[in-house]
Every structure is written in C-alpha cells, then in structure tokens.
Specification:
By secondary structure, this protein is α/β, with parallel strands linked by helices. The protein is built from 10 helices and 6 strands; from the N terminus they run E-H-E-H-E-H-E-H-E-H-E-H-H-H-H-H. It has a 6-stranded parallel sheet with strand order 2-1-3-4-5-6, sandwiched between helices.
Length: 219
C-alpha cells in the first residue's frame, strides 16, 4: 500500500509541482491538498493520511498550531515540515511538538522523498543543510544562563507580539489578531528587540523557546 500524503501549503503552484514530483514514485500517493491551516485540519479528519507535508507559514493557523492539533487527534501521524526558514530554532520547536522531518524548500526532490519515507517509518530526518548547521552551533559552545528577569522587561503586549513573531506571523497578521495597526506592531517589534538586545528573528525565536512563550495550541 502506498504512503498516503496530504500537502499543506498556501501556494497552489508549489502544491501542484510537489504533487507531480511525488506521484512519480510508485510508493507515494497524494490523497489531498490544503491551502491554509484550517483546511489542513479538516482534510486530516476527512482523509486517512500517513504523512502530512506541512508548510510552516500558512494563513488562519500557523504550521506549529496545525502540527500540535494534528498530533493530538492522530498521534501516529508522520509530519514532514517543508519550509524556507533555515533556522535551527524552528526545527527544534517542531521536533519538540512531534514532527518527524524538517526539509528546506530549496532542497532537492530526492531529499524530500527520502524524508517522507523515513518519517513514515517513524524515524527522524533533518535536511543535510540544517544538520551541519545544528552540529556546528554546538561545537565549542558553552551555554550561558544569565537571562533571569529578561521577560519582565517586556510589557504584556510586547510579549504577545514576541510570541506571534516567533511563530512566524507577519506584521499584518499580528495586527489583525491583536486589533492594532501594522505600524504599532512594528513599533512593538523594534522596542522588544531593543530591550532584549536581540538582532533578528532567529534570536527572538531562541528567546521565546527559552522562556516558554511557544506553547502547544497557541497562538
């Protein structure tokens, strides 16, 4: 019996290309597609799926939210995260939730197909480009734990914005969720990065994970 796959990505052309690629393999079958997070959850309830090929950044529900909900309802589902984020922190968080594989969109079709097969067996797969990055980040590195009290530097609203940014939401999406303007979101973003002395999204995600802002089922 072929491995049954659901493709969840908000770009229809990309989904079409993936479907063509995967269905050239005799042991793979794309049984459904979804263009946003809510549609993905509905498809999982409608079809019998072995592997969920999941984009991190989708409308209505983030990839992290979808993964958490999906695994709560279908514990043995194999999730393969397909993303543009070359960021070990996203990878660690998705593995913590229960994803089996993490593949970059710029990777070859061969690597994606391998990831699907490995994940369907219940094993983990890391994109080779990221595997080297993860290993090198620990070589000669001594972790520091001098961050007590940093969360208290942020106002409740800045903590909300921090969490949503860490989940991969855009300024526009955050503005809609919090009923504020995009300019206000950008102001909060600038302020919290300055207060925490963070230099970009990767460091912000590390901070959010360390302080427990990325919780299952949120935001």
């Amino acid at each position: 019996m072929p491995i049954r796959i659901l493709i969840a990505d908000d770009h229809a052309v990309f989904r079409s290309g993936l479907k063509s690629l995967l269905e050239n393999e005799p042991d793979l079958e794309v049984v459904a597609e979804a263009g946003d997070g809510l549609a993905t959850v509905k498809a999982l309830n409608r079809y019998k799926i072995d592997v969920l090929l999941l984009d991190l950044s989708m409308p209505k529900m983030s990839g992290s939210q979808v993964a958490a909900v999906a695994l709560k309802e279908i514990p043995d589902l194999a999730i393969v995260v397909l993303t543009m984020h070359e960021d070990e922190y996203y990878m660690k968080e998705l593995f913590k939730i229960g994803a089996k594989a993490f593949v970059l969109k710029k990777s070859t079709g061969t690597e994606l197909i391998q990831a699907i097969r490995v994940a369907s067996r219940g094993e983990q797969f890391i994109d080779p480009a990221l595997a080297g990055q993860v290993i090198s980040s620990y070589v000669g590195h001594t972790p520091t734990r001098n961050k007590e009290g940093r969360l208290d530097l942020l106002t409740p609203r800045e903590q909300e914005v921090c969490k949503l940014l860490a989940f991969g939401h855009t300024n526009a999406e955050i503005a809609a969720k919090l009923f504020i303007s995009e300019r206000t979101v950008e102001s909060h973003r600038t302020n919290l990065l300055g207060k925490l002395d963070l230099k970009g999204r990767a460091e912000l995600v590390r901070f959010a994970i360390d302080y427990g802002l990325l919780k299952l089922g949120e935001p």
